[in-house]
Amino acid sequence: MSSEAHPEPSLQPGSGRQSGGPSRHRPPRSFVLRGGRLTAAQQRALTGLWPKYGVDSGHRLLDLPALFGNRNPVILEIGFGNGESTWQMAQASPSENFIGVEVHRPGVGRLLLKLEQEGLENVRVACADAVVFVRECLADGALHGVRLYFPDPWPKARHLKRRIIQQGFIELLAQKIAPGGLLHMATDWQSYAEHMLAVMNNSADFVNTAGPAGYSHRPSSRPLTKYEARGQRLGHRVFDLLFARAG
Predict the structure, then answer these.
(1) Contact 198, 224 (CB under 8 A)
(2) Do the bridges between strand 97-101 and strand 143-149 make them parallel or antiparallel, or are there none, so unpaired?
């Protein structure tokens, strides 16, 4: 948590962190910076609440015990959207710490407001490219778990390389998750679920907790969001994948 006033987090993920070279050499991003109108309350949150909850990342490893003021296990949530799951998980598990990473301003502002409203102290928020954040800001073995719920499926064949779940990213997560920690993914796109399962089955660093079944039932630790509940009413299937870090 930054001790200095931070008027507004950078909304250009990875800006200032590239080592140079033409943009054509940058790997494809797994997200798009979509437009979205900030409410006045969200804008005030980005200004006033960032010093309390915000993580000002850069070319440095974070001191997680100092960031949270304790040595509780740390869970990373990648792409929290509007933060609905984030604050609910934090509220239900006060003995765990949560870092949420998101690139979209309205969602960040909304979560900041909810953290203040609920009086939650075990959440910090980073506005950054998740891949860059994991690689540059987290020490090896620092995480008790990673949660990735409903990432952009990039369904078109020419965009499949943009999916965040790729072999290289799983290898990176394996470095950051301590042995026994859980990687929990969820998607309502069957093709992406099959892609996730194939990538994970090729990793020697993780063990599928569902065994031969492949997919798991939604654990109680993952809140049922309004979006997901609406999808279920429409007959959409949701796929949960839970993999434990081996070792």
Answers:
(1) no
(2) unpaired
Question: Distance from CA of residue 167 to its chain's centroid?
Answer: 17
Quote the CA–CA distance of 222 and 190 in Å, as a whole number. 19
Phi-psi region of 212 (alpha: psi -120 to 50; beta: other; left: phi over 0): alpha
Q: How far is CA 21 from the centre of its chain?
A: 28
User: What are the chain's domains?
Assistant: 36-52+62-138 (3.40.50.150), 154-247 (3.40.50.150)
Q: What is the pTM of this model?
A: 0.84
Place of tokens 């194939």: 198
Distances (CA, A) of 110 to 3, 47, 57, 146, 226: 22, 12, 20, 22, 16
Q: Are strands 177-187 and 239-245 parallel, antiparallel or unpaired?
A: antiparallel
Which distant-in-sequence residues (6+ apart) come within 8 Å of 126 by Cβ? 54, 55, 57, 99, 100, 101, 102, 133, 137
Question: How far is residue 164's CA from residue 4's CA, in Å, rounded to a whole number?
Answer: 32
Average pLDDT, the chain: 86
Alpha-helix runs per DSSP H in 95-235: 105-118, 130-137, 167-176, 190-201, 226-233
Residue 152 known to be catalytic: yes
Q: Which of 152, 188, 205, 240 is catalytic?
A: 152
pLDDT (0 to 100) of residue 227: 72
DSSP 3-state assignment of 76?
A: strand
What does the pLDDT look like over 146-196, one tens digit per residue? 999 999 886 777 767 889 999 999 999 999 999 999 999 999 999 999 999
| pLDDT of amino acid 161 | 87
CA-based R_g, the chain, Å: 17
Q: 50: which residues sit within 8 A by CB, 6+ positions away?
A: 2, 6, 7, 8, 9, 112
